[in-house]
Write a structure and sequence with these properties.
25% helix
Length: 994
C-alpha cells in the first residue's frame, strides 16, 4: 500500500498533513470523553419539544470560509467537521465547462477558454473593465437557470487571475462576485476574502462564498439564478483577467430538528430542516428515549412523510418560484410503551443524514415533559363551537406517513371546562368508525357529546391522545363567523376605498373600470359570437363606466354568470328566513351603516349596481347582456392597471341576468326601509329584467350554442363556459327546441321562474314549464353558476303568492327530498360526517369536503321546504368539518377558529401584506381545501404533487386524499375561493346565528 501522502500532489502536502493532525487531535479528544450537552429544559408548551441548540449556518461556514482546497479527488471536499466529507457529485453543479450546454453558455465581457481550467479543462475567463463585469448567462441551461441557491451554505469555485498583455499582477489582486435574477441583484462580495489563504494568485485557489454574505436583508434571498458576475472593484485599473472553473452550490451544514412534538403517548413527531436520506432514517438505533429510570428505548416503528410547504421567493403569501418548492420533512417515532403523564424524558437523536449525506456533528439531546393535556392534532373538533341543542361530535386519529395510522385504542372522551381549574364536565365512550386509509389515513374514533348543552368554553380530552382546541357552546356561537363571511363581500368590492383596519386599501381597478372598452371580438360575427355589434351602434372608440360590483375570486375579473349565483344564494336565504338578516351585522361603510336596511341587502345592492351596467342599451342588441368584464392578462393586484374589456353578449348571460335582476327587484321591493331610501330602484330592476326577457324571446335559440368560449374569442379571464347540459331532455314536439342539448334552457327556466314569482304574469309561468321540463329539477346542484334548473326549481316551489302547478311542485319536492335524504345518509355514514359523497376519489375537489357548510345550506333549505327536523340536525353537523373537525385539524375559513389558512389565493391579501402592513390574509375566505388531483399543466401543481416533493407518493394514490390541502397560494384548486362558493356558506351560518 502506498503512503497516504504519495497519492496527493506535492503542492497539497502541507494541507493534507494539517488535516491529518486535526483528525488525530479530534480522535484523542473524543476518546477522552469530550462531548457537547445539547439538552434544553422543559418546553413551555407541553409536548412541543423545542429545537435543539446547534451550530448556526454562519458558524458552520466560518470553518470553511478560508477556502479548504480540493482533497484527493475532484468531486470531494473537506467538510465542516474533521470526519465529514462532502461529495460534490451530490451537490448542485452550476458550471464546470464540461458539457456542451456549459460550453455554449452566453457570456459578456469574457469568454469560455479551453485548456485553462482545473486539470486542463475549460474555464470561464472574465475580462472586466472599470464599468462592466464579466458574466455567465445560464439561460440555455434549464437545470441551472432560475434555480434556487438559498438552501445551500456556500458557492464554491476555483479562481485564479492572469495579467493582461504588457501588465503585471498587483501584489494583492482583487475581484468581486454577485448573482442576478430579474429584478434582483445579490450583494457584491470580494472574492479574495473567501479564497484559500485570503488572496488570489496565478494558481487556482478554492473560493467558498457563504450564501448568507450574498443575500440582501429584506430583499433578494437567492431564490433564483440567472447570471453570475465577476468584476473588479470600482476605481481599480483592469490589469488582469479572472479565470473561473468548477462552480458548485454546496450544502455542508448538518441536518437539524426544527420541531419535535408528542402527538400521542407513544408517538413523537420530528420536523426536520432538510430532506433526509430515506433509508438511513429507518435505523431505529439512531433514536434513544430515556425516562426517569434512564432505561434506553428505541422506536419499534418509524414513519416518513414529506409535506409541501411553499415556494421560495414567496412573500406575504405570494406565489414564489415554481421551480423552487419547499417541503417539511417529517419523521414519526413510535414506541411500544406509553409515556407517563407529566414525566420528563430525553430523546437522543444520533444522526439524521440529509440527501447529500450531511450528518449531525454530535448527537442531539431533547428534553421534554409529556403532558396529556396538550393540543396534539390527534383530537379534532369544531374549533368555533356548537349550538347548545345540536349534535356534537369530535374525532380521534392521526397519520404517521408510511407507518400508517396512529396506533392505540382511546378509552374515553372527556369534555373539559376550559376555564379556571379545567374540570371534567362529562365523559363518553368512543365509537370506532373504521380505518380510513384512502381518505384520511386515520384509524378513526368518534365521540358523541351532544348531551352537553350548558353554555361555556370547553375542549375534548382523550387520555393518551391529547386534547382539541378550545371551543364554545352558545346560542350565538356562530355570530363572529357570520360577520366575517359578511364582511368578506364588502372587502371584495371593486372601485371604492375599503376601510377595514389592517385590510384598509385605496380604491382598486378604478381607472380601468371607469374607461372599459368593448373587446374587438364583439364586432366579429362567427360561431363564437353570433350576436355581434355594429360600429354604428357601438363605436370602437367608446369607453364605458363599469365601476362597482365584487371581484369574482382571488383575482379581479367580474363575470355575469358567477355573479348571478351569490346574488341568488343570498337573496334566497333572505327570502326563506328574513328574520336572520338585520341591520348592523356587517361592517359596512358610512352611508350604509345603521340605515335600517338589512346589511345583506345593502351588500347585494352594491353588486346589482354593477350588474345592471352589463346590459346593452340601444342598438341592435338592446337588452342583451355582456358576458364579463376582464383584462387580457391576469392582474396581480388591484393597482396593476390593465385595460378592461367587455366580452360579447350571449343568451346565456342575458337569461341569468333576467333571473337575478327579477329576484332582486322582488326582494328589494319587499323591504320598506330599502324602498324609502332607494325609491324606484326595485321597479327599475324589474323593467330591466323584462327587457332582458324580451331579448331572449327574440332569440329563442341559444347563442352562442355552447356559451361564451373566451379562449376561442381571444379574451382573458377564467373559462366559465355555459356548455350544453348533458341531462337535457329532447322534446322534439316543442318548436325551436328539437335538437338536444339546449345549453341555455336551464338559464331560461330560472329567468322565467323568477319573473313569474315577481309579477304573476302567466307568460312567464308558461315559459317556466316549457324550459324547466327540459332538465332534471336539480341537475348540477353542486355548481351554482353553470347549472340553473336547481335555482328555478327552488324559486318555484317556494312561491306562494301566485298559482303553481301541483304536479310540478310535487315533483320538485320529491326530487329535493331524495337529494336531502342522500345528504343525510352521507352525513351519518361518512367517517367525518360530511353530506358530500366521498366514495368517489375524483369527486373530492373544488370545496367538496372543505366547504361542508355548503351542504348545510342545502339541508337548511330542505328543512324549510319539507319540514323534517332531521335535515336541520344534519345541517348542524355539516358545519363541523369546515371549522376543524377534519383530518387536518384546521378550519378552512381564514381568520376563523384556532388553526386556519394563512396564504389563500387572494391577491389583495398578498398585496396588503407586502405593501400595507397587514399581518394576515383577509378573514372570511372559505378556501376550496383538499383536492384529489390538481391540474399538472400548472407548474406549481406539478411541483407539489411530484413524488420528489411529497411522500408517501401522490401519484400512486398512497397519500391520503383529505390531507391534500396545502396552505400554498399557488395551488389554485385548493387555495382559491369564489363569491359564488362563499355565498351558501354565509347563508348557512346566517341561519344558525342568533
Amino acid at each position: 500500500m502506498k503512503p497516504i501522502l504519495s497519492t496527493i500532489p506535492r503542492k497539497y502536502w502541507a494541507y493534507a498533513s494539517a488535516v491529518l493532525i486535526i483528525f488525530l487531535i479530534l480522535i484523542l479528544a473524543l476518546a477522552a470523553g469530550w462531548k457537547s450537552d445539547g439538552r434544553l429544559g422543559d418546553a413551555s408548551i407541553p409536548n412541543a419539544i423545542p429545537p435543539v441548540s446547534t451550530s448556526s449556518t454562519a458558524s458552520a461556514l466560518s470553518s470553511v470560509s478560508s477556502g479548504t482546497p480540493i482533497v484527493a479527488a475532484r468531486n470531494t471536499i473537506a467538510g465542516t467537521g474533521a470526519n465529514v466529507r462532502i461529495d460534490l457529485a451530490k451537490q448542485f453543479k452550476i458550471w464546470t465547462g464540461e458539457s456542451t450546454a456549459e460550453k455554449s453558455a452566453r457570456t459578456e465581457y469574457g469568454k469560455i477558454v479551453t485548456s485553462a481550467g482545473v486539470g486542463g479543462s475549460a474555464a470561464f475567463q472574465a475580462e472586466p473593465d472599470q464599468w462592466h463585469s464579466g458574466s455567465i448567462n445560464f439561460e440555455n441551461m434549464p437545470d441551472v437557470y432560475r434555480q434556487s441557491l438559498s438552501k445551500y451554505d456556500f458557492i464554491q469555485m476555483s479562481v485564479k487571475v492572469a495579467p493582461l498583455n504588457g501588465k503585471s499582477l498587483p501584489q494583492n489582486p482583487r475581484a468581486v462576485f454577485s448573482i442576478y435574477a430579474w429584478p434582483n441583484t445579490s450583494a457584491s462580495v470580494p472574492i479574495e476574502k473567501y479564497a484559500d489563504g485570503g488572496t488570489l494568485s496565478s494558481e487556482f485557489r478554492t473560493v467558498r462564498i457563504p450564501t448568507d454574505a450574498l443575500a440582501v436583508a429584506g430583499g433578494f434571498d437567492l431564490s433564483s439564478l440567472e447570471f453570475m458576475y465577476f468584476g473588479i472593484p470600482t476605481g481599480t485599473d483592469p490589469a488582469y483577467v479572472i479565470i473561473v472553473d468548477d462552480i458548485y452550490a454546496v450544502k455542508s451544514g448538518s441536518n437539524d430538528i426544527v420541531k419535535a412534538q408528542a402527538i400521542s403517548d407513544r408517538v413523537i413527531k420530528l420536523s426536520l430542516k432538510s430532506r433526509y436520506d430515506m433509508k438511513s432514517v429507518l435505523d431505529a438505533s439512531q433514536y434513544v428515549l430515556r425516562g426517569a429510570d434512564r432505561q434506553a428505548k428505541s422506536p419499534v416503528k418509524i414513519g416518513r412523510q414529506i409535506v409541501p410547504s411553499g415556494f421560495e421567493g414567496s412573500t406575504g403569501g405570494s406565489y414564489g418560484l415554481s421551480n423552487a418548492p419547499m417541503v417539511e420533512p417529517i419523521l414519526y417515532l413510535v414506541f411500544d410503551a406509553p409515556f407517563v403523564d407529566k414525566a420528563v424524558y430525553t430523546l437522543t437523536v444520533k444522526n439524521i443524514p440529509d440527501t447529500i449525506g450531511n450528518n449531525f456533528q454530535q448527537p442531539k439531546d431533547i428534553s421534554f415533559t409529556y403532558d396529556d393535556d396538550s393540543v396534539t392534532g390527534s383530537v379534532q373538533a369544531n374549533q368555533v363551537g356548537y349550538l347548545p341543542v345540536s349534535p356534537k361530535f369530535a374525532y380521534v386519529g392521526n397519520y404517521l406517513g408510511d407507518a400508517g395510522a396512529l396506533p392505540g385504542t382511546p378509552a374515553s372522551c372527556d369534555i373539559m371546562n376550559a376555564s379556571g381549574t379545567k374540570t371534567k364536565v362529562a365523559s363518553f365512550p368512543l365509537e370506532h368508525r373504521g380505518l380510513d386509509a384512502q381518505l384520511s389515513g386515520n384509524d378513526i374514533y368518534s365521540c358523541d357529546f351532544s348531551s352537553v348543552t350548558a353554555p361555556g368554553t370547553y375542549y375534548v380530552s382523550v387520555p393518551g391522545f391529547g386534547r382539541s382546541y378550545d371551543f364554545k357552546i352558545a346560542d350565538d356561537v356562530y355570530a363572529d363567523v357570520f360577520r366575517k363571511l359578511s364582511d368578506f363581500y364588502y372587502n371584495q368590492r371593486a372601485d371604492i376605498a375599503i376601510e377595514n383596519g389592517q385590510w384598509s386599501r385605496p380604491a382598486g381597478t378604478l381607472a380601468s373600470d371607469q374607461k372599459a372598452q368593448l373587446h374587438a371580438a364583439n364586432y366579429v360575427k362567427n360561431d363564437f359570437n353570433p350576436l355581434a355589434l355594429s360600429e354604428s351602434g357601438y363605436p370602437k372608440s367608446a369607453t364605458y363606466d363599469m365601476t362597482g360590483g365584487w371581484y369574482d375570486a382571488g383575482d379581479y375579473g367580474k363575470y355575469v354568470l358567477p355573479a348571478s349565483a351569490p346574488i341568488n344564494e343570498l337573496l334566497f336565504a333572505y327570502e326563506l328566513y328574513p328574520q336572520k338578516f338585520q341591520d348592523g351585522q356587517a361592517d359596512l361603510p358610512a352611508g350604509e351603516k345603521s340605515d335600517g336596511i338589512p346589511d345583506i341587502l345593502n351588500e347585494v345592492k352594491y353588486e346589482m349596481d354593477w350588474f345592471q351596467k352589463m346590459q346593452a342599451s340601444g342598438g341592435e342588441q338592446d337588452g342583451g347582456v355582456f358576458d364579463r368584464l376582464t383584462s387580457q392578462d391576469w392582474e396581480i393586484s388591484p393597482y396593476d392597471i390593465h385595460t378592461r374589456y367587455l366580452a360579447p353578449i350571449s343568451t346565456h348571460a342575458t337569461a341569468v341576468y333576467a333571473a337575478a335582476t327579477a329576484q332582486a327587484a322582488r326582494v328589494f321591493k319587499s323591504d320598506s326601509a330599502f324602498e324609502r331610501k332607494y325609491p324606484g330602484y326595485a321597479d327599475d330592476l324589474l323593467v330591466k329584467a323584462k327587457k332582458a326577457w324580451a331579448y331572449l324571446a327574440a332569440h329563442p335559440i341559444p347563442q352562442p350554442a355552447n356559451g361564451t368560449d373566451v379562449h376561442g374569442l381571444g379574451i382573458g379571464g377564467g373559462d366559465y363556459q355555459d356548455t350544453s347540459n348533458t341531462n337535457c331532455r329532447d322534446d322534439k314536439a316543442t318548436p325551436g327546441l328539437a335538437n338536444c342539448p339546449y345549453s341555455d334552457v336551464d338559464n331560461r327556466a330560472w329567468a322565467a321562474a323568477e319573473l313569474y314569482k315577481t309579477t304573476g304574469d302567466q307568460q312567464y309561468h308558461d315559459a317556466f314549464k316549457k324550459y324547466w321540463s327540459q332538465t332534471e329539477p336539480f341537475w348540477g346542484l353542486y355548481n351554482n353558476f353553470i347549472f340553473h334548473n336547481p335555482k328555478a326549481s327552488l324559486a318555484y316551489v317556494t312561491m306562494h303568492q301566485y298559482p303553481t302547478d301541483p304536479a310540478i311542485v310535487s315533483a320538485i319536492k320529491d326530487a329535493y327530498r331524495t337529494i336531502a335524504d342522500e345528504e343525510v345518509g352521507y352525513t351519518n355514514s361518512g367517517k367525518y360526517r360530511v353530506g358530500y359523497r366521498m366514495d368517489v376519489p375524483s369527486y373530492i375537489g373544488w370545496g367538496a369536503f372543505a366547504q361542508s357548510a355548503a351542504k348545510a345550506s342545502d339541508l337548511i333549505k330542505a328543512y324549510v321546504i319539507l319540514g323534517d327536523a332531521k335535515y336541520l340536525d344534519a345541517a348542524k353537523i355539516n358545519l363541523d368539518a369546515e371549522l376543524g373537525a377534519n383530518p387536518q385539524s384546521m378550519s378552512y375559513i381564514t381568520g376563523v377558529g384556532s388553526a386556519y389558512p394563512q396564504t389563500p389565493l387572494h391577491l389583495t391579501s398578498i398585496w396588503l401584506r407586502q405593501n400595507s402592513g397587514a399581518k394576515a390574509a383577509l378573514p372570511g375566505i372559505a378556501v376550496f381545501g383538499p383536492h384529489y388531483r390538481a391540474n399538472e399543466g400548472n407548474p406549481y401543481n406539478a411541483a407539489v404533487q411530484s413524488d420528489a416533493n411529497i411522500y408517501p407518493s401522490f401519484h400512486s394514490g398512497s397519500y391520503p386524499l383529505l390531507r391534500r390541502y396545502f396552505d400554498i397560494s399557488a395551488i389554485v384548486e385548493q387555495s382559491e375561493f369564489g363569491i359564488n362558493t362563499n355565498a351558501p356558506i354565509l347563508a348557512a351560518f346566517a341561519y344558525f346565528s342568533k
